[in-house]
């Protein structure tokens, strides 16, 4: 009996030992690595040759991160993984929140109703196109199709991970969907600034940097990719891109709610309360997007001294560059093989739709409104 009691008293301690421990010592190697890459790219970003190529500090951070990530980083991954993941997730969100100090509500109002309509049309058309192509053309299962559709239409890997508990999808399907988002979103970081330069040279369309920023924010996959691509165009484009993207990110919660109701349709009403509880617990609210709006609102009043705002924006650049470096470190070329041909083709067609169809939606809405 005493043996049983002693085991019971020891059980909580054993369970605590099984919990992950996020100590500073385990985070430090990854943070030092991403910080070192950030220091390097901030120095490189002042070279005129790289500036002429449109290679901003954030773009360079991703490039350098990808080079290291696909060469020597696998050897250091066991020591650096936790710090790199912290930079890719938490520091990115903190960087987006602090980005609000670059903006005021006047700039947000400039995006206005047209930005909301553009985001809604882009999100809806991309997701429904994914469902049709995935099931009718490529014969993919519903979970893989919807995960790729959510990642392409809303906010990349974050949308995939948020949609997974609603669909109750297998881990392999989630991994494949994330891989496709990473592949085409990374291509977009370099493609969009090139499209801007192409249009500027040949004057194909009469479009301002702000409007191109809205187009960027409404069609690119990840928040980080939007920041990097917009930064590679101009400050006005970057500001508009981030605002449009934040509006799109905030659509994640209602999207998940509607998807949950759709999934629950036709199920038995027995055990409805438990089912409802499960539905609500699966909804993920992107709080960092709301904080971003709050910081921009606070900045609109001009309460902080200009020197403070400058320091906060310098910190913001460092945090975002560290997040981009972490994104590059965790972008592996092996993801191409992992994704497989059909999911890759589906994601590729959605990417083409976002570029061409998204441009059409932007031009139409901006013409009408």
**Kindly state the mean pLDDT as a whole number?**
83
Order of helices and strands: HHHHHHHHHHHHHHHHHH
- Sum up the overall morphology in one term: globular
Unreliable segments of 5+ consecutive residues: 1-21
Biggest β-sheet: count, sense, barrel? none
Which percent band covers the strand fraction?
under 5%
Number of helices in the DSSP assignment:
18
Radius of gyration: 22 Å
Number of strands: 0
> Between the first and last Cα atoms, what is the distance in angstroms?
77 Å
The helix content is over 70%
Decide which structural class fits the backbone. mainly alpha
Which secondary structure elements does this structure contain, and how are they paired or packed?
Layout: H1 2-18, H2 24-44, H3 48-52, H4 57-69, H5 73-99, H6 105-137, H7 142-155, H8 157-167, H9 171-202, H10 209-219, H11 223-231, H12 235-250, H13 252-264, H14 272-281, H15 287-300, H16 306-329, H17 335-339, H18 341-368
Helix pairs in contact: 2-4, 2-5, 2-16, 4-16, 5-15, 5-16, 6-7, 6-10, 6-12, 6-18, 7-8, 7-9, 7-18, 8-9, 8-13, 9-11, 9-18, 10-12, 10-18, 11-12, 12-15
């Amino acid at each position: 009996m005493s043996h049983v009691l002693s085991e019971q008293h020891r059980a909580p301690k054993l369970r605590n030992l099984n919990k992950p421990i996020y100590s500073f010592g385990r985070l430090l190697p990854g943070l030092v690595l991403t910080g070192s890459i950030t220091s390097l790219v901030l120095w490189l970003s002042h070279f005129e040759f790289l500036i002429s190529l449109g290679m901003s500090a954030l773009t360079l951070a991703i490039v350098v991160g990808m080079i290291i990530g696909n060469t020597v980083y696998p050897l250091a991954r066991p020591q650096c993984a936790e710090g790199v993941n912290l930079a890719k997730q938490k520091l990115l969100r903190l960087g987006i929140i602090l980005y609000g100090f670059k903006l005021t509500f006047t700039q947000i109002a400039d995006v206005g109703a047209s930005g909301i309509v553009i985001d809604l049309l882009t999100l809806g058309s991309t997701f429904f196109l994914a469902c049709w192509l995935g099931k009718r053309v490529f014969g993919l299962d519903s979970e893989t199709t919807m995960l790729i559709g959510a990642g392409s239409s809303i906010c990349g890997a974050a949308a995939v991970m948020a949609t997974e508990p609603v669909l109750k999808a297998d881990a392999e399907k989630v991994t494949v969907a994330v891989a496709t988002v990473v592949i085409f979103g990374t291509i977009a970081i370099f493609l969009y600034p090139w499209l801007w330069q192409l249009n500027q040279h040949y004057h194909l369309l009469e479009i301002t940097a702000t409007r191109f920023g809205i187009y960027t924010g409404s069609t690119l996959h990840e928040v980080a990719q939007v920041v990097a691509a917009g930064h590679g165009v101009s400050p006005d484009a970057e500001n508009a891109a981030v605002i449009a993207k934040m509006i799109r990110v905030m659509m994640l919660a209602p999207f998940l709610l509607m998807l949950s109701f759709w999934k629950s349709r036709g199920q038995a009403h027995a055990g409805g309360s438990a089912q409802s509880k499960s539905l609500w617990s699966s909804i993920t609210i992107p709080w960092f997007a709301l904080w971003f709006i709050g910081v921009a609102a606070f900045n609109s009043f001009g309460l902080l001294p200009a020197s403070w705002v400058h320091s906060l924006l310098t910190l913001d650049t460092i945090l975002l560059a560290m997040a981009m470096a972490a994104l590059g470190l965790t972008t592996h070329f092996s993801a191409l093989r992992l994704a497989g041909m059909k999911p890759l083709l589906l994601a590729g067609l959605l990417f083409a739709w976002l570029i061409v169809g998204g441009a059409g939606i932007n031009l139409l809405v901006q013409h009408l409104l």
